[in-house]
Amino acid sequence: MKRDYNLGYIVSITLVATLGGLLFGYDTAVISGAEKGLEGFFLQAGDFYHKGWHGFTCASALIGCVIGGFTSGFFASRYGRRNSLRFASVLFFLSALGSYNPEFLFFSEGETGFSLMIAFNLYRILGGIGVGLASAIVPMYIAEIAPSKIRGTLVSCNQFAIIFGMLVVYFVNYLILGDHTNPVIDKDVAGLLTVNAASDSWTITTGWRFMFMSEAYVAAVFCILLFFVPKTPRYLVLIGQNEEAMRILTKVNGAARAKDILADIVATSKEKTEKLLAYGVLVVLIGILLSVFQQAIGINAVLYFAPRIFDSVGVEGGGMQQTVLMGIVNIIFTVVAIVTVDRFGRKPLLIIGSIGMALGAFAVALCDSYAIKGLLPVVSVIVYSAFFMMSWGPICWVLISEIFPNTIRGKAVAIAVAAQWIFNYIVSSTFPPLYEFSPMLAYGLYGAVCVLAALFVWKMVPETKGKTLEDMTRLWRKNPA
Fold first, then answer.
1. In sequence order, what are the residues at sequence separation of 6 or more whose Cβ sits closer than 8 angstroms to the Cβ of residue 356?
2. Whose CB among 60, 225, 241, 481 lies 3.0–4.6 Å from 280's, allowing a Cys bridge?
3. φ and ψ at 194, to 5 degrees?
4. What global pTM score does this model have?
C-alpha cells in the first residue's frame, strides 16, 4: 500500500529531535558510573560529606528536571518547540563542562570543600533543566510533526534514544574506568565515612570528570542539527503562520492531505488562550497520574544505582559489566514497543508491562527474603527493567504527547512532566535508605505499585491508537469531566 506521507523526511526530523532524548538518558544515567568517584572526591574534602549529601549530589539534577518540566509549557508556547530544544542543548553543553571542571572561575585547581560541592550541584541542576525541557518538548515536537498512522512509533523512538543514551553512557563510563577501580569507602563504628588508603586515586581525582565531560560532544552536535529542522505545523498555526504550516504539512504529507490536516488543525486551534481545565479535570488528572505511575513503579531507582545493586548481590563480572548487559536488554525491549505500539495500541502494552514488572519486582524481593545471591536476582532485576522498556518507558511519553487537546497541550504537558520529575526525585532520593533498610521492602513496594498501575490503565486511560491530535480535542470536548 502506497504511503501518504514522506517517510524519509519525517525520519530525518525525528532522528534530530531524538538526540534530545539521547541526552536525557545520557545526563540522568552518567551519575551511575561517576557517583563512587565523586563520593571519594568529596569525602577527602573534609568530614562535612555524608550519605545525605551524597544522596543529594546523586539526585540534584532531578531538581533541575522539575524546573525544566514545569517551565516547558511556557517555553514551548512562547518560543516554540524547536527554539526551546535549542535552549536545552545549550544547557546540556554548559552542564557537561561545569560538572567536568566545577573549579572553573571561582575555585583554585585542587581545591575541595562544601562550596565546591554546591557549585558542582548547580551545574548538575543546569543540565537537569535541559533534561526537563527535552523530556516534555521532544515528544511534543515529534507528535506534532508525525502523521497519526505512525505517531506512536515515532514518539516511541524517543524512549529508544533515552535508553540508548543510557547504554552509551554505561559503556563510556566502563571504558573510562578501564583498569582503574572505584574507591573503597570505609565506615567506622561512629558512622563516619572515609576513603580507604588503598583506593585508586585516579578514579577519585580524574575519572568522574571525564565521564561528565563526554556529554558535551553530543550536546554540541544536537545544537547544530537543530538549525536544520522545521517548526511544527501546529505551533505555526497557533502563532498565525498558516502558510508556513501548510508548507511543512505538504512536505510531510503531500499537498492533498496537507489541506485537510491544516483545516482540521485550524478548526481545533481557534481558541488560543483556553484555560487548562477547559476540557475538564479528568484529562489533566489522567496525564498527571500517567507520569506519577511511571516513576512510582521505581524504575529510575534501578537505572541510577544499577552498578551498586549488582555489586550487592555478588554477581560475577562486577556491577558495571552487568549494567551494560541490562542496557542492551533494555534496548531490545524498547524496540519491541516501537514495532507494536501502533499495531496493538497503548493500553495493552501498559497493562502487560505493569504485570511483568510486578513479577520481576516481587522476584527480587523474594530473593532478598531468602538470601539468594548471584544469577536469579540479577535476572529478576533485568526482567523488571525490560518490561518497563516495552511499556511504561515509551508509552507514557506517547500518551502524554498526544492525549491533550491542541490548545492546552503546552500547559498540560508541562504539569504532567513536572509531576513526573517530582516523583522521580522522591523515588530516587528515598531508594538508597529504603534499599539499605530492606531490599525486600523496596522491591515489594514497587511491585505493589505496578499492580495499581495496571488497574489505573485498565479503568481510566483512553486508547489513542490511530487517532489524530485533533480527534483528542473532540473526544475531551464531547466527554468533559
1. 383, 384, 386, 387, 390, 391
2. 481
3. -140, 155
4. 0.81
How many residues can be counted in the chain?
481
Q: How far apart are CA 13 and CA 11, in angstroms?
A: 5
Say whether pLDDT at 99 is over 60: yes
C-alpha distances (whole Å) from 171 to each of 32, 174, 259, 418, 435 are 11, 5, 47, 29, 25
Q: How many Å from the N-terminal Cα to the C-terminal Cα in the chain? A: 40
Q: Are the C-beta atoms of 469 and 406 separated by less than 8 Å?
A: yes
- Grid coordinates representing 243? 502558510
User: pLDDT band at 271, cuts 50/70/90?
Assistant: very low
Q: What cell does 294 get?
A: 511511571
Question: E strands, 417-476, where?
Answer: none
Query: Residue 54 class from Cβ within 10 Å (0-12 exposed, 13-18 middle, 19+ buried)?
Result: buried
Cell triple for residue 297? 513503579
More confident residue, 279 or 81: 81
Residues 6+ apart with CB under 8 A from 78: none
Q: What are the tens digits of pLDDT across the range 396-432?
A: 988 988 888 877 888 888 899 889 888 888 887 788 7
Residues 6+ apart with CB under 8 A from 52: none
Helix (H, G, I), strand (E, B) or coil at 468: coil
DSSP three-state, residue 331: helix
Residue 283 in contact with residue 476, Cβ under 8 Å? Answer: yes
Among residues 154, 166, 468, 146, the alpha carbon closest in space to that of 338 is found at 154
Q: Strand ranges (DSSP E) for 256-301?
A: none
Query: From CA 420, how far away is CA 417, in angstroms rounded?
Result: 5
Q: Which pLDDT score is estimated for 244? A: 94
Extract the C-alpha cell encoding 111. 581545591
| Cα 324–Cα 328–Cα 333 angle in degrees, nearest 5 | 145
